[in-house]
Design brief:
2 copies of one chain form a homodimer. The first copy, chain A, is mainly α. Helices cover 71% and strands 1% of the residues of chain A. Chain A is built from 14 helices and 2 strands. At the A-B interface, helix 2, helix 6, helix 7, helix 8 and helix 9 of A face helix 2, helix 6, helix 7, helix 8 and helix 9 of B.
Chain lengths: 301, 301
């Protein structure tokens, strides 16, 4: 990939990431009482060196539509709690069995399996508590809409359903590429799309604007996953902060095993161009979101 | 225990239980697509032969205050989804490692561990989706309040925190009975109290009425837990539908190991009387809630 990421963009991404980290730290209860280990495990899982891509998308889309910063920050923190919970549970021995995440021991390695299950449960629950609070938005109708959409994106016909397919797909008559595409759309696509929705809803975007954002996040989410599969083959464990070539070793299909390296790279380029095209009508206001596409293409971890 | 449970009460409890089962069955998505196993596991975990005590409390309290039946049923179904998720995760090998629940194989035995983690996650997420929907109540402020209270009752300073204490308590300077009481209050008490709140909120109860209900559910929840500990010692596995004397074998303290059998029985009688006293001002309207106390005292599983 030949795109170059603007250093100002990386700074902007880092600033949003830092604000999200601070916000989540404040929203997780203090580690006190006989249940204190739970809060320590929640922090371990949620305050690591993540890219904070989903909250960044939520906040940048929201800024484009003039949403209030405080609402954006809290809603973005809630969705990042959902993402953090999903990583903790996906890393469990009974799931992907990963010991390292973002260069740190996964929660079940730093603590134990029971604590990891509970820390994930608690972060998911906290996400809904954050979203429902009047501090997130003055209008309860808006809060309920965000909660309904978040639950749909994270639930059985969203992220959790995608992880179920990843674990034990019932293929029936469907082609492997069909199953894989559905898996990706649910497992990673749904929450990336929800990030865009958060910004669009809080910014009061018009229907055609919401559709443009949905098209953008849809393409970006799929590109993100294919890059992930390419990194699984091409990356090295040190840069990536996690084990590589896991899919091939596990005998799993992914976009690279199905399309080949060149086919997958071509698909990423196509999706990137299409994602940017969805933003054409926003002109310069979408600069940061356009750069996000390049960032996703260039990522090395 | 010498109380006799009214057969009409058992019928009423059974009817509410059946309605809850039907409602949850309709709210879980159909088992279709390559993620179908997830929905089957959700049904396995949520549609078993539970007592449906929490939704029953929610509905009976709500009826006493004249709440709408449809709102009560949906909110009660949501809270039962939270309860079902907690049982699925508590039964996992890394937690209580139970193979049997309500006389049936637990979800991780009927399916596998990964599916059990995901089915629990999905039921928790679904619970919030149900609560946030305009079908549950026309007023979004009410829906958000229910969601905030549900998240607080289920989260790190509620049910999940209680399970953390049960797994790995940090005792510090606290007495064992203090830690145990906090564990119970969080692990089982918080959601039983939330059940009462659901009915009181949806029924528009006054502040003093809400406090009376809170006192009632607080005592009932603690009595419920002590009876549980007594059954763990006195019960037999066949009636109970699960393994017995697990706490002693695991070297755990519970109310019976700390208070003795007679001490625990005395505490249950005291709490039962106190729970009923909280309902005195409601007169005959509280008959069903009074009978619930006797039901909890007489339960054999």
């Amino acid at each position: 990939m030949i795109h170059v990421v603007d250093p100002d963009f990386e700074k902007r991404l880092g600033e949003v990431g830092d604000r999200i980290t601070v916000a989540i730290d404040q929203l997780i209860p203090p580690a006190s009482g006989p249940e204190a280990q739970l809060m320590r495990a929640m922090r371990h899982g949620a305050l690591g060196q993540g890219k904070r891509l989903r909250p960044f998308i939520a906040i940048e889309v929201g800024r484009m539509f003039g949403a209030q910063e405080k609402s954006l920050l809290r809603a973005a923190a809630a969705l990042e709690c959902v993402h953090a919970y999903s990583l903790i549970h996906d890393d469990l021995p009974c799931m992907d069995d990963d010991d390292i995440r973002r260069g740190q021991p996964t929660v079940h390695k730093a603590f134990d399996e029971a604590t990891a299950v509970l820390a994930g449960d608690a972060l998911l629950t906290l996400a809904f508590e954050i979203m429902a609070s009047p501090e997130t938005h003055r209008d309860a109708v808006m809060r309920c809409r965000l909660i309904e959409r978040m639950a749909a994106a994270a639930g059985p016909r969203g992220m959790v359903g995608g992880q179920m397919i990843d674990m034990n797909p019932e293929t029936g008559a469907e082609e492997p590429l069909q199953v894989l595409t559905r898996m990706q759309r649910l497992k990673t696509g749904a929450m990336i799309s929800f990030a865009g929705e958060v910004g669009a809803l809080l910014g009061g975007a018009q229907e055609h604007e919401r559709q443009a954002i949905a098209g953008y996040t849809n393409d970006l989410g799929l590109a993100f996953q294919i890059v992930d599969d390419l990194l699984d083959v091409e990356g090295d464990a040190e840069t990536l902060g996690k084990a590589v070539d896991k899919d091939r070793e596990a005998g799993k299909v992914n976009f690279v095993t199905l399309l080949g390296v060149e086919g997958a790279q071509g698909q990423v380029r196509f999706l990137a161009a299409q994602a940017k095209q969805h933003l054409a009508s926003f002109g310069n206001r979408a600069t940061s979101l356009l750069q996000t596409v390049d960032f996703v293409l260039n990522r090395r971890h």
